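Researcher: Checking consistency across runs. Here is Winged helix-turn-helix transcriptional regulator again:
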Amino acid sequence: MRKRLILQTLPRPNRRDLIEEIYWLCDTLGLSSGRDVDNLSTQIILKILQHSSNYAGISSDELGSLLAISQGRVNHHLRNLSRSGMVYRDRRLIHLRGRSLRESIREIRRDANRIFDELESVADEIDTLAGVSSKPEEKKALILMAKAGIILKD
């Protein structure tokens, strides 16, 4: 499954308030940006939190009824939330990925760490193939392939 998340640095709310903090969290994760002018993604996360405290999940039909929106809009936002790694669907029920918001964030962090580990590994291979070292004391020649032949650079 392809995941997409946009992280933004935003000032945290000054006072502790459930609604303000959940909006801040979702805005920071880029879940309520773009065309989501009604912040439905944030409202869906809030409803999942409020109605699935026993880990039973909530149906998309129930979310639509609670938010007074069409099933198509619910499913659109659920797809985006699923792509971000925040929620998952098990049969007909929607769940937070980690059974709590904190665990969901931890799972997303582990995903990001795995992605960055892979990026670092590939970058290291590219550096080696290009003759570039991350250690300043090593100096290797950079070999570039050109149509006319090989060009060596010191």
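Researcher: Does this match what you'd expect to see?
Model: One thing to look at in this run: Residues 7 and 29 are 5 Å apart (CA to CA).
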